[in-house]
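INTERNAL AUDIT FORM
Audit reference: QA-55
Scope: verify that the stored structure record matches its stored sequence.
Auditor: D.O.
Record contents follow.
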Amino acid sequence: MLIGIDASRAVTNTPTGTETYSRYLINALIELGHAEHRFRLYFRVPPSPELFQDAEIRVIPFPRLWTHIRLSLEMALHSPELLFVPAHVLPVIRPRLSLVTVHDLGYLHFPETHPPGQLAYLKLSTLWNARVATHVLADSAATRSDLISFYGTPPEKITIAYPGLADTETSVHVYTPKEIKARYGIEREYFLYLGTLHPRKNLSRLIAAFASLPQNVMLVLAGKEGWHHTELLIQIRRLGLEERVLFTGYVDKEEKTALLRGALALVFPSLYEGFGFPVLEAQACGCPVITSTTSSLPEVAGDAALLVDPTSTDAIASAMLRIMNDPALRQTLIEKGLENVQRFSWKQCARTVMNVIEQMVQSMV
């Protein structure tokens, strides 16, 4: 069978969660299924030659509306038997069989955390995906439940396929924790946030919670700038935290791993996540985790994190103090975290997806 995959989101130089998902899952699918199936990957720009092996690479550049015009044209002229879109929206023209991943519906829970234009696009594109796809993959039970509740997607049309964590994402040792602290001028012990600086990540409450902590710790916010990030700078100045809160900007894999290994804990009090890769990345690096009681985060963290009400500044601050004052708790969370990450792998995710694909094909026979 010829399986087409929209791989356009897998080749960015600064990957976040969905781009990471796309890249690793595509490679895992090819490795799992290349003996029985052919894979054709569609790109807007050429990928690095070493990224994808045992697959046909199809580069189809187009300036705007690439999905609905250029990819649709490709589907009309040279259609695969099935199209899988792991990190974007299905084109208007597509094969009889189409599979799409819906990562989260957090924009419906917290619409105020998105710019109006982005909010409208997320609503329309996700509704389109849920309605027209032959089958839908969800990153978590939380996302599956939201699809059923908000969009009326039939439960039998949705399969949960938990993303994985590749060894290469946490095994790099370019920097030691001491070296990464020197690189960024981190002069004390520190708590770490990892991710885009976006209102849904609840960073204003995190900063407010941190302000109540003793002076001998820092807060490192590692991630690229998002919507309303300048408001965080204003808050930090108002609270007098300029010397204790550090922005690194986007960090690459090597820097991220070293920052996690050196942190007191990852603090990830997001209001909503479809999955939450930073939680697993931290646990795999032996970094304790403080995260939210909401959405998919308890699913992902298991019993290996301190779970807090993300709307309570006091709860976030209390958990950070517990980490500072209880070395035995830190060690317990580290040990449990290393166990928890074993539940997630790209190989298992690919097996689930491939089973869905084969069932879709059989249903059409």
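Auditor finding: record pair retrieved intact. The longest helix spans residues 346-364.
Action required: none
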